[in-house]
# Entry
Amino acid sequence: FKGKGTITKIDLEIVSVELDHEEIKGLMPPMRMEFYVKEKAELEVLQIGDKVDFVLEDNAGAERIISIKKQK
# Structure
């Protein structure tokens, strides 16, 4: 699932990001939510307030971001 959002919190210890995201079509309405992220290195180059594009995998209700990049 592809999504867009704005970073509101980054936690490098547990490798998660909190996003204020738009609707993720086919999965969830717009909301602020924390997600685990697959690659810590992708989070290390981002900052609070960055607008991002991300790809989310949904494994039986356990969502995880498998790709997150700052919007250009």
User: Anything to note?
Assistant: The first helix runs from residue 40 to 44. The chain has a mean pLDDT of 96. The helical segments are 40-44. The beta strands are 2-11, 16-21, 31-37, 51-59, 62-70.
